[in-house]
Design goal:
Elements lengths: L7 H8 L12 E3 L4 E3 L2 E4 L2 E2 L2 E6 L5 E8 L2 E9 L5 E8 L2 E9 L5 E8 L2 E2 L1 E6 L5 E8 L2 E7 L7
Length: 156
Amino acid sequence: MNRYTIPLAAALLTLSGTALAGEPPSAVVPLSQLQKDGDVHLLKGAPFTGTVIDTYPDGARKARFQVVDGKANGAWAEWYPDGVIRFYSEWRAGKGEGPFVYFYPNGEISERVTAHADLWDGVAEGWHPDGTKAFERVYQAGTALSDQRFPADGEE
């Protein structure tokens, strides 16, 4: 997997203004209408099931994620104000489960790691804005086993 490999769902999110890949038909509610109790999203005091959206003041999409029984469940994406994807992750029952990918404002990946049961697991990689590797860290069940850092071009 190289730096330019973007999860298919993230690509679909960027192209689709309306639905996440595999998103079940459900209620779509603005984040401003929900309350939080810990990590549980509530609508009128009850755990919410559906799609949550958030927008910037100008109406541009800011975030979109799925919730089941009040907990994040499925794809979660956030965008910069200009519409470029900023962040993509996957969740199961309120816990990070799958890729977590962070993007620079130009849409290129800045960091990538995988979560299992809400803990980083496997290889985490990051890149400098110029595309050169910034770090590589290996995690096992949330514990960093190794950490390599690579200076940006011209840095010591």
